[in-house]
Amino acid sequence: NPSFDNQLFWANKWYDRIRFAAPAGHFVIMHPLADDALMDQLISEVGAHDRDRPKQPLFAYVATAGTHEPYTLDGETKLAPETVRAAAAESDPRRRYRIVLRNLDAQIGRVLDFLDARRPGRPRLIIIVGDHSDVAGDVVPPEMRGLPNNAVVWTGALIAGPTALIGPVPRVETFPSSHVDLMPTLLDIVGDHAPTVSMGTNLFADIPVDQRTAVAISGQGYRLDRDGWSLLMRRDHPELFWTRSAFAPIADVRAGLEGSPFTAGEVRRLWENINTWSYLIENNRVWRERSAAKIGGDTVTNHHDKQP
Q1: For residue 39, what pLDDT is reported?
Q2: Among the four residues 73, 92, 234, 240, which has the most C-beta atoms within 10 Å?
């Protein structure tokens, strides 16, 4: 649903082509495509790119919806009707999730098979990441609802690519990270070192694990993770904050900073930094003004300095 959070405004500025389901009503709500239909579109777009611009690199952002609640397989799907009915009839959300996850895995496999058949020698980087988790039966205390608890934000990422781009594989990294780390990571991989305004850090940078941090933002509050600890705070009342070991049960959360490695200064900076970064995004100031890039021999002016 690209109408959510005004995503289309930014997509229309930053992407050459955008494909999404048509609005279903007056409130411009888009019903998401089934994952198999979405992957059909991706394969079609990559094929068209290879025909029309075979020497140009390609970046594609694909937002799937099958593994988002309510975990169903309906929509413009070509899956067998009995498979769709089985997911809809399952009352346990955890079992229903596993059904749609198996389907997404199969659809990603189709895309990988297609990419394997492209012209050899082209480096390929694939990142699969969840946008958030889901409570799915976990009990959250009333005072903690709406905050970025593990049950609603903790997720992981799979990154596959040449060792020249991402280092030795396979391996597992367990330091805290978040979605904002993807932008500086990708910019560094493609060699774009122009100044940006970002809270993120290159995932492959040589930084000690205990210095890695992650920020999570939800409707009611913010979260900072560092070195096995979490700091959670209210967005509208920054004087209310809690700490706990990052993966301890939610019942272990405690008000204040006692026993944690965080300081009052870090609480204040977390709130101030997110406010500043939000302002920069809203005013389209993530990239420097009037930067230029060399693309295909032509100088292309960067228009990211325009106000919304």
Answers
A1: 94
A2: 73
Token pair 């280092």 is found at: 167
* Distance separating alpha carbons of residues 129 and 158, to the nearest angstrom: 7
**pLDDT at position 301:** 32
Length of the chain in residues, anyone? Answer: 308
- Report the pLDDT averaged over residues 13-33: 71
- Round to whole Å and give the CA distance between 225 and 173: 15
* Total-model pTM: 0.82
Interval 243-268 mean pLDDT: 90
Q: Are 159 and 125 in contact (CB under 8 A)?
A: yes
The per-residue pLDDT of the chain, averaged, comes to 83
Share of the chain above pLDDT 70, in %: 86
